[in-house]
Fold:
Amino acid sequence: MAALGSGAANAAQRKSSRWTQSCDVVVVGAGGAGLAAAVTAAEAGKKVLVLEKLGIIGGNTIISGGGYNAADPVLQKKLGVEDSPAKHAQQTLAAGDGRANPQLVNELTSHALESLHWLESLGVKFKPYVYQIYGGLYPRAHVPEKAAGMAYIEALSARAEKLGVKIITNAPVTGIVREKELSGRVLGVEAKVNGRPERIEARCGVVIASGGFGANVAKRSIYDPRMRNLTTTNQPGATGEMIDYAEDVGAQTVGMDYIQCIPGAPLGDKTRSAFFNVVKRFIFVNKAGKRFVAEDRRRDVLRDAFLAQPDPVSFVVIDSQGWDEMPGGPKLRCEASIKAGEAWKCQTLDELAQKMGVPVDVFKKTVAEYNRGVDEKKDALGRSPTVMTKLEKAPFYAGRASMAVHHTMGGILIDVKARVIDRRLRVIPGLYAAGETTGGIHGTNRVGGNAIADIFTFGRIAGRSAATKA
Structure:
């Protein structure tokens, strides 16, 4: 972690140094949470500046599968699914072992559908159904028609441009400026813009929306040493230094050792296949050709089952029905894996087993036993029959997979207005945070599909709070 005070100059320097730029709201990070905050603040009539340390915008959002959890009674009723924000909250709290803040969870689930409709008003088109995403625990995930998270970023960036939001890329923030080191109002940030140091005033507030630290091997390994030798699904900018800078001015953090993994590229592979996106359509198989976990379990349970295998590489298997139901973004990744020879498309299970390098007879027996469980509505590993469909229609597909760091549930402590809370549990005036850089919303384990709902719901809250100096 950064040394205390490294992100800010002393009080005398703050008073004597001139601002090189000035605006109402500074947003750090141009992913989903950051752009949602920027657009919301701009819609409130504020002058907004977004600083993005990478050369492109989008963050983890743009490379996500895009699944968005929201209780949607109108759409779900048509599909025979009963749901409510209260049920969504209950499942989220249970999935995080009760370690999430109930107030934050209720804020998320109560406003997730509202945020989804807001995205629709900006031009995001969703497919007319919901499904249970990997680790999602319930069929409430909405998915955009456009591949992956691109739909969100395109709509938000277009709206930001129309509102006059200024977005600067290649502009890493290097510190937060506060009136005093651990007291007073946050006044702005220090950053490097095109390699030049700048001091940027934020008259209303600063919103931290810079993501988590999944791509920071050293930092994540402090909290969970098992994470040291894993790859990550994150973009390279997810290194967590804004969490350090928030701590420098007194912010409290929570849940930093809650680190989530999903199947990703094994070490040495060039691609990451995503055959596991639709829960009802896949099985996991290890190097012995056998299933080793009920595939509908929580993401932390699935992580630990993978890490317990003798060989770090296992496989995800689907049939043509699974391929047809796969959303566009994951399908593109799977196509890249097949082209690279790290996933396979075969007309028979025999051929697929040979490509995977697993015992043919064992693998075929595994598939047969699974299919029998579908017919009998009773799975040998305890998978729910509601998310089981047969693997029977050629062609068949399989992709290599090992666990990869996906989401860091811990981060900056916030309240329901997205205000940053300090070590003495007091609000830090003028400092707000949203998205994966925060902690307390997911507990020990994030429900699949909740992150996208989180970034837009709390991104909007942070933008509104900053604009009003809440």
